[in-house]
Write the structure tokens for this entry.
Amino acid sequence: MPEITMGLTETQVAQFHHDGFLVVEDLIDDAMLADLQMGITAEIDKSCRALIELGELSRDYAELPFEERLTAMTAETPKVIGRITDGALAIPAIFRLISYGPLLDVAESLCGPELIASSVYRLRPKLPNYGPGVVPWHQDSGYFEPFCDSALIVTCWVPLVDATAENGCLQVVKGGHTGPVVKHGAGHHYLLKIADADLPEGEIVTVPVKRGGVLLLTNLVPHCSIPNVSEGIQWSMDLRYQSASLPTNAPITRLPDEMLDSDAPLACYPPEADVLVRSAERPDQIIASPEQFEEIRLNHIPGAITERWGDENLWRPGGKRWTGHARKKVEQS
Ligand SMILES: O=C(O)CCC(=O)C(=O)O
């Protein structure tokens, strides 16, 4: 049976643009989430085997549930969590989520029919009381090229477990997306941070999202995540979509009405690889297999970004901004 999905209603689209965010319930089915969990677990297993052999981990904690297992091994070594977090993985299940029809329908409702999956996708296992998992106030555009500030790049924040205030869900400034990108400085772990004094005005809303639901955010809405004070891991992935008419390093041919100014950057986030995921105009250029996806992600040569915040602390030693993908490449070399 073909998948029947419809994207957002006009009311939902209007609410998204009014508030800067929107929760869509029951969008991602159990099979998709189970597939993702299995793919992540296989990567954890692989890391465990390697670290046990090296004597860096005592055992694989395979008897523990998904919401607890990584916490137990992280008490012994940070290496397992380090190898799967953020954009480090380009596994088939992540590709299937990024290309998942109902998500693309939602993205199409907001970005149009020629859809690029932005290079910035992140897997976030937020362990209980785990400092690096708490993300400071920022606008996603703080990380993107200034050229893309006025464009729409939609974040789809997808919890793999019920996300609650207790286990560290997100907060947003409702309606805080109508002004410009505000000043960002250095937060912890090379994350950007908006100082309290610079935070756009608006009601701060805590946004729990049930497993199967998705939180949509504009690239201008200020948001942060709060500490996980529960006993379990809050697993989530965030994906982003944009129109193919914006700067992108996806391997596509441009349509006549997509020609960009000569001052356009290589992509809205050049360090990692974008991919075309839906297109009526150039269907042969859609990335259609996990193998193609992995190849593009792993062989991408990081493009330079505009340093818009001018703070040495935002940079890793060696002059490169941290990216999950770059880290994987360093580990492989
Ligand atoms: O999941 C989190 O803790 C933060 C996510 C986030 O800030 C984002 O997706 O931009």
Residues 3 and 171 are 32 Å apart (CA to CA). Residues 14-332 form a domain with the Jelly Rolls fold (CATH 2.60.120.620). Confidence is low (pLDDT under 50) at residues 315-322, 326-333. The radius of gyration is 19 Å.
